[in-house]
Design brief:
9 helices; Tetracycline Repressor, domain 2; 0% strand
C-alpha cells in the first residue's frame, strides 16, 4: 500500500535534483560542471546522485528536458492569459522561453547548447517546433492578428519570432534590453500595438 508514496517521493527527489542541476549547468556549462557540483547543489552525496542517475550525461539530459518542459508550460500559461492583449501574451511567451535563458545561462556555459544537441538533438528540435506551434496557434486564433491583415502566415511569423529570440545568445544584453528587441520584432511582424 505504501508503494505509490515511495515512488512519488523518489520522483519528487529526482525533480529536486534536476531543479538544482539546471543552475549548475547554467553557471559552469556541461564540460565544467562536475558530479560533485551537481550533488552539492542538490544537497545529497555523490552516491545519492548516482542512485537516481547513472552519469553526469543522464543528469544533464533529464535536467534539460525538465527545463524545456517547464518552459513550454510557462509559454502556454502566458499565451492563455485571459483578457490580455495579443502583444502582452506574445511578450510573456517570448520571455518565458528565451528571456529566462538570460538569467539561467552565462556566456561561459553556452557549451550546454552543443552538448544538448549532441546528447538529444532531435528532442531539442521537437521542443523548438512545439514552441513555434504554440505561437502560431495563438496568432491564428487571435482576432487582433486577423484584423491587422498581415502579409505573412501565423506560422511564418512564429518562425521569425523564434529566430529573433535566438539572439539571446549574442552579446551580453540584459533581459530587459533583450525584451525591448523582442517587443520591436513582435510589433513589426504582427502589425499590432504594444
Amino acid at each position: 500500500m505504501n508503494m505509490p508514496q515511495i515512488v512519488e517521493a523518489g520522483s519528487q527527489r529526482r525533480d529536486c535534483i534536476l531543479d538544482a542541476a539546471i543552475p549548475v549547468f547554467g553557471r559552469f556549462g556541461f564540460r565544467k560542471a562536475s558530479v560533485d557540483d551537481l550533488a552539492s547543489a542538490a544537497q545529497i552525496s555523490k552516491q545519492g546522485l548516482y542512485l537516481h542517475f547513472p552519469s553526469k550525461e543522464a543528469v544533464f539530459q533529464a535536467a534539460m528536458q525538465k527545463y524545456l518542459d517547464d518552459g513550454l508550460r510557462l509559454v502556454q500559461e502566458e499565451l492563455d492569459r485571459p483578457g490580455a492583449p495579443l502583444y502582452k501574451r506574445l511578450m510573456g511567451a517570448m520571455d518565458a522561453w528565451f528571456g529566462r535563458h538570460l538569467v539561467t545561462f552565462t556566456p561561459e556555459s553556452f557549451d550546454v547548447i552543443g552538448a544538448g544537441n549532441r546528447l538529444s538533438g532531435s528532442e531539442v528540435d521537437q521542443y523548438k517546433a512545439a514552441f513555434q506551434a504554440k505561437l502560431a496557434k495563438t496568432l491564428a486564433d487571435s482576432p487582433e492578428f486577423r484584423e491587422a491583415k498581415n502579409l505573412c502566415t501565423p506560422r511564418e511569423i512564429a518562425r521569425v519570432l523564434f529566430l529573433c529570440g535566438l539572439t539571446w545568445k549574442e552579446g551580453h544584453a540584459s533581459r530587459a534590453d533583450f525584451m525591448k528587441q523582442v517587443g520591436l520584432c513582435i510589433r513589426a511582424c504582427c502589425q499590432i500595438e504594444s
